[in-house]
Automatic annotation (TrEMBL):
Any Pfam family: HAD
Entry-linked PANTHER family: PHOSPHORIC MONOESTER HYDROLASE, UPF0655 PROTEIN YCR015C
Domain of life of the source: Eukaryota
Keyword Hydrolase included in the entry's annotation: yes
GO molecular function: phosphatase activity
Record key words, sorted: Hydrolase
Species whose genome carries this gene: Kluyveromyces lactis (strain ATCC 8585 / CBS 2359 / DSM 70799 / NBRC 1267 / NRRL Y-1140 / WM37) (Yeast)
Protein name: KLLA0F12298p
Length: 224
């Protein structure tokens, strides 16, 4: 296999982060969220704890949360084109997210199309959700016991064993991508978000992007 592409979902494949949207509009608000993110970036707070605090501040029923996200979250305009290119060139595309799989699948179902996503072979690896059907109350169910809740570095390592590709690409934007930043041959960081300055501070090479068309073109060039 010549290559595999791993990507964060919220704020990377989508233009808005669905978890930020829920927290800012239905939870304790943007100001408190930014304080949480600052602590994670500084290394003073585990991502797992900060993210759970964000989601626990949201008290809307889960179905209502999904309805609001479907109405407001938009897809990066170049993502489908990139997914089509990956499928046509036998390059696996795996979404590796610190978000929740039911929300991601609902958004992909609307923004890409459930059947189309299956045809393109888009795989989703993310956290789960436990919902109380009687009350609608819900909470995140993390994939692992690490301080990250979902250690993307571990997941990427597992995928590498499965794919055994010649080159690996990772696309991300923010604090949930910190463990993944060093794991691939080429890192794409969305311009204007938290991942790029983190990489600058720690000397991690990356390529800035504004949309997935740029990512597709660069991957095609790297593999030509």
């Amino acid at each position: 296999m010549k290559a595999a592409v791993f990507s964060d979902f919220d704020g990377t494949i989508t233009l808005q982060d669905s978890n930020d949207y829920l927290t800012d509009n239905l939870g304790f608000g943007k100001e408190e969220r930014l304080k949480v993110f600052s602590g994670v970036l500084d290394g003073n707070k585990p991502f797992r704890d900060g993210f759970k605090a964000m989601l626990d501040s949201v008290h809307e029923p889960f179905d209502s949360c999904i309805e609001q996200l479907l109405a407001h979250i938009k897809l990066d305009p170049g993502f489908v084109e990139t997914a089509e290119w990956c499928a046509a060139n036998d390059v696996p595309l795996v979404v590796i997210s610190s978000g929740m799989k039911p929300i991601i699948e609902a958004l992909i179902g609307k923004l890409v199309g459930t059947e189309r996503a299956k045809e393109l072979g888009i795989e989703v690896i993310a956290n789960g959700v436990e919902v109380d059907e009687a009350t609608g109350e819900w909470h995140i169910v993390y994939r692992d016991d690490t301080p990250h809740g979902h250690d993307k570095a571990q997941t990427i390592e597992q995928c590498k064993k499965r794919f055994a590709a010649d080159k690996y690409f990772y696309c991300g934007d923010g604090v949930s991508d910190l463990t993944a930043a060093r794991e691939c041959d080429v890192l794409f960081a969305r311009e204007g978000c938290d991942l790029a300055p983190y990489c600058d501070h720690h000397g991690i090479p990356y390529i800035l992007f504004n949309n997935f068309t740029e990512i597709k073109d660069r991957i095609a060039k790297e593999l030509s």
